[in-house]
Design goal:
Blueprint (H helix, E strand, L loop, with lengths): L1 H25 L1 H4 L5 H27 L2 H25 L5 H9 L2 H5 L4 H23 L6 H21 L10 H11 L13 E3 L5 E7 L18 H5 L3 E4 L2 E2 L5 H9 L14 H7 L3 E6 L8 H4 L4 E4 L18 H9 L4 E6 L32 H27 L5 E7 L4 E2 L5 E2 L12 E5 L1 H6 L1 H10 L4 E2 L3 H8 L2 E3 L1
Parallel strand pairs: 2-7, 2-8, 4-12, 5-6, 5-7
Antiparallel strand pairs: 1-13, 3-11, 8-11, 9-10
The chain binds zinc ion.
Length: 491
């Protein structure tokens, strides 16, 4: 009893220290997660406890040293509050592009970010920090070491064990996601590109092309392809849309599939310098523009950067945010580029039908109900998941139709190609989402549209693509098809 009494101050200090960190930092990673019902909240609460437990393990060892704790903890705590404030208030995601924003933004621009709530948050954080540091300096030095070392070590080991069992178990949340993003920011891109394509011959001087790089769309959930629900009311109404029902890919995650789609890489190829479709289009005199509603991943960032211009509409919110902009936001910058003259290749990189589905469409697209109401998948029904997923396609239908309506007004021959990077598991084999191995992921949506003047100028190109729409084919067709439609030849 006497011994426990002596350990009490240390236990209290660490409880308050960790509670403060939950309040100011780690809690921000859970604040926006949509949850429904007691069970879902309990599961995420346990996750938060486990995550904070691992942080507590690391902190215990730091707290054993007076000056390292004072200095290092102060720096980290205040720096992390800079991230967590935006995670709390704006649901931003900690990604390499955010780190880039932090490290490369000029101080005068950064000053604009300081608002009254931001200032108040920091004032509270500094007060808490001063309180904790004072308390720490009063603690008996290294008392209880024998009792606490083993549990603290066990908590640290728990981090590595659980992270090994499931990648991203802790790493995608504060505080660990900052370390991951910093590491990725400084890491060199693994991709080798041939930036100077030879023998490029351009035959046209007036084509406007929009390439829509889709996300997570299964071909078999398109009304256009005979799905039992009419998920494509607007596109189905038109008679000028070509949709492929049997196009296959072997790539089931964005990081491997997007580089393959945007370069001359074949599905079976690896390890050689690849040529970006944009490098070829640039050489052929096209103005190339990348408009993205996804934060860039290092897997395809160097390819996207071969565009003449790159703009991201919602730079600081990735798929880990629940308050992301809708893809329609990309139409405005697209409009202003379409207004300019000359040959154009505009790419729109969608967030598409990526999980969390309810953040991918507006209320008027909620055709199928009931929809998902919790991020905890086991507590949802199959109907809820499929309904929400199908509603994202109702949104896609309107989005693509909006693009087509704009291109219809162009006098120059124009076309739109939509290709999704992979599909999605909707309960097949009891599994959901993607990044796994299953046929449901390997048949992405692929949709083409051509303007009247394009059809008049290139009747054979259009006819050939129409004839292929029901034939089995692979994503290898995308690169040569894009170049052929841009009327570019490589000799
Ligand atoms: Zn993807």
């Amino acid at each position: 009893m006497e011994r426990l009494k002596k350990l009490k101050p240390i236990i209290y200090f660490h409880l308050v220290l960790n509670a403060t960190i939950v309040l100011f930092i780690t809690g921000a990673s859970y604040y926006h997660v949509p949850l429904e019902g007691f069970k879902d909240h309990a599961i995420y609460f346990l996750h938060l406890c486990a995550l904070q437990g691992t942080v507590a393990g690391f902190l215990y060892f730091l707290s054993l040293f007076k000056w390292p704790f004072r200095i290092l903890f102060s720096i980290l705590f205040l720096a992390y509050c800079g991230f967590s404030f935006w995670a709390y208030s704006q649901d931003i995601s900690i990604t390499p592009s955010l780190i880039q924003g932090v490290l490369e933004t000029k101080p005068d621009i950064a000053v604009d970010l300081v608002t009254i709530p931001y200032f108040m948050f920091y004032l509270a954080a500094v007060t808490a920090l001063v309180f904790l540091l004072k308390w720490h300096s009063r603690l008996p030095k290294r008392r209880g070491l024998k009792v606490f070392v083993a549990p603290a070590l066990a908590l640290i080991i728990m981090f590595y064990v659980l992270e090994r069992r499931q990648f991203g178990f802790f790493k995608f949340r504060l505080p660990y996601n900052v370390a991951v993003a910093v590491e990725e920011y400084f890491e060199k891109a693994p991709l080798e590109l041939n930036l100077d394509p030879k023998g490029v011959v351009s035959r046209s001087d007036s084509i406007k092309a929009v390439f829509v790089l889709g996300e997570t769309l299964r071909a078999d959930h398109l009304g256009l392809n005979g799905y039992s629900r009419n998920t494509t009311p607007l596109l189905s109404e038109r008679n000028d849309v070509i949709s492929y029902s049997k196009l296959f890919t072997s790539k089931t995650i964005t990081a491997t599939s997007v580089p393959q789609m945007l370069t001359d890489q074949k599905l079976e190829d690896s390890n050689r310098p690849f040529t970006s479709v944009y490098s070829v289009a640039n050489t052929a005199g096209f103005k190339t523009t990348w408009i993205g509603n996804q934060t860039m991943e290092k897997s395809y960032l160097p390819i996207a950067e071969t565009n003449g211009e790159v703009m991201l509409v919602d730079k600081y919110r990735s798929v880990f945010s629940f308050d992301k902009e809708l893809d329609g936001v990309m139409l405005k910058p697209m409009d202003s580029i379409l207004k300019t003259s000359g040959k154009q290749l505009i790419t729109l990189h969608m967030i598409g039908s990526h999980w969390w589905y309810e953040n991918r469409y507006e209320d008027q697209h909620r055709v199928f109900t009931p929809v998902i109401d919790s991020k905890y998948i086991p507590s949802l029904t199959r109907d809820q998941l499929v309904n929400s997923y199908d509603n994202t396609i109702i949104y896609l239908d309107e989005f693509l139709n909006d693009i087509i309506t704009r291109l219809e007004k162009e006098e120059t021959p124009s076309f739109m190609i939509y290709a999704s990077d992979h599909g999605e598991l909707l309960g097949e084999g009891g599994k959901w989402l993607h990044a796994q191995e299953d046929d449901a992921l390997k048949n992405p949506g692929y949709i083409l549209w051509f303007s009247e003047s394009f059809r008049i100028n290139y009747p054979f190109k259009v006819k050939a693509l129409e004839e292929l729409s029901d034939e089995p084919t692979t994503m290898d067709v995308l690169y040569p098809t894009l170049l052929d439609l841009l009327d570019i030849e490589i000799q």
